[in-house]
Amino acid sequence: xxxxxxxxxxxxxxxxxxxxxxxxxxxxxxxxxxxxxxxxxxxxxxxxxxxxxxxxxxxxxxxxxxxxxxxxxxxxxxxxxxxxxxxxxxxxxxxxxxxxxxxxxxxxxxxxxxxxxxxxxx
Length: 122
What we know:
With 122 residues, the chain is α/β, with parallel strands linked by helices. It contains five helices and four strands, in the order βαβαβααβα.
């Protein structure tokens, strides 16, 4: 079985180096548990309402370059706080054959489950 290449994406809205490092450490541990190869990591301090942020662009560029099979995030809010833009980004990732996995708690969520949860929240 081929090892999936995971990109770790961490985001905090306010300066908090500890929270950013904790997100990254937890996601690295999760990737190791799942047997994922870590293809890259992006950690940034930025608003979740702005989807044109530097870190998310870095993730998108890695996806377009074919470097990513799985995007690991701590929870959906780390990807962004705008439901419409978040939905569009998740659909774009799905079109690129990139699976999104949230490691917030004991049950990881796939892109399909995330989209379903987002629609219920509307």
